[in-house]
Design brief:
This is Alpha/beta hydrolase. With 315 residues, the chain is α/β, with parallel strands linked by helices. It has nine helices and eight strands.
Length: 315
């Protein structure tokens, strides 16, 4: 049973939810919660994973806000409260992962100019992938970065290369904006969605609460194009010679028993980064480290707190 001093099912009274227009005028749903102390600790931009909404992370936001951080997060294009890019119901679709990077670049520039430093960028799962790609490409320049169970490879019974080839074959047989599968977080599994994400039932049910409260923000399975582009983007990032040039101090939290992303891919990339600390979790941890049982979650939050204290000093 999770124990939390924060109301995980209520937007904080002084937080704001609004829309931000990307350069192409696409509307993204944004959460902003300014620090409420005379001297803010700094600013955190937190980005979730595929299908996520920022409400899932209110507990973590509350923890950092109590320390004096301003918190910002937005739903990725094509999911959550940021619209859909496919006519196939609530399918999560994208034509090119470069669009995610472009949105992050444009949003980050405005956010950094409008918020107090130091500036910290965090990304969970797909958000971790997009953040690392943006860092490597020079699209964002935070003072520190945190990658939480980053999607740098996906769990596939066929491996990364064969998985990509199969995705291209199956996705090419028809409209690739159609859903790649029906339910669950991935095909070829008998595990429940809850088991893939967290061992903490109460925190998992928080997500169900928000789905019922805001049904328009629910994102279903990805499209075949999303799957194809995810494989391509991960492959290109893993092979990028620019990994060794990315000098932003980085903390990487990896769940060795992750059933969604491939932890070996993250561990293989880490040595290429000049300034990275890797923290590994064992079988006690599923994919959502910040929404796990208290022992795992508290350790993850403690690692982040210690990293920020050491590498994101107040100005």
């Amino acid at each position: 049973m999770s124990v939390s001093p924060y109301d995980r099912r209520a937007i904080p009274p002084r937080a704001q939810i609004h829309q931000w227009s990307a350069p192409d005028r696409w509307a993204l749903r944004v959460f902003s919660w300014a620090a409420e102390v005379p001297q803010p600790r700094g600013s955190i931009l937190f980005q979730g994973g595929r299908g996520d909404v920022f409400e899932k992370y209110l507990e973590a936001f509350g923890h950092w806000h109590d320390q004096g951080w301003s918190i910002t997060s937005f739903d990725w294009r094509g999911q959550g409260g940021s619209g859909r890019l496919s006519a196939a119901g609530n399918c999560g679709h994208i034509e090119d992962f470069g669009a995610f990077v472009g949105d992050l670049r444009a949003f980050y520039d405005e956010w950094q100019a409008a918020t107090p430093g130091p500036h910290v960028a965090m990304g969970h799962s797909m958000g971790g992938h997009i953040l690392l790609r943006a860092l490597v490409e020079g699209a964002v320049h935070p003072d520190a970065a945190v990658l939480i169970a980053p999607m740098l490879g996906v769990k596939s019974p066929f491996g990364q290369a064969m998985g990509e080839r199969l995705a291209r074959l199956m996705g090419g047989a028809g409209d690739d904006s159609r859903p790649a599968w029906r339910g669950n977080e991935k095909p070829y599994t008998t595990e429940t969605r809850a088991a893939l994400l967290t061992h903490d039932r109460a925190r998992y049910e928080d997500e169900l609460f928000w789905q019922l409260a805001n049904p328009d923000t629910v994102t279903g399975p990805p499209s075949w194009r999303w799957v194809i582009e995810a494989f391509r983007s991960m492959r290109e990032l893993r092979a990028s010679p620019k990994l060794g040039e990315m000098r932003v101090p980085t903390l990487m939290l990896v769940a060795d028993a992750d059933g969604l992303v491939e932890p070996r891919s993250a561990l293989a990339i880490a040595p290429s980064l000049p300034d990275v600390r890797v923290v590994r979790f064992g079988k006690e941890a599923a994919h959502e480290l910040l929404r796990e049982g208290d022992a795992v979650r508290d350790r993850a939050m403690g690692e982040i707190d210690g990293f920020l204290q050491a590498r994101a000093q107040p100005r």
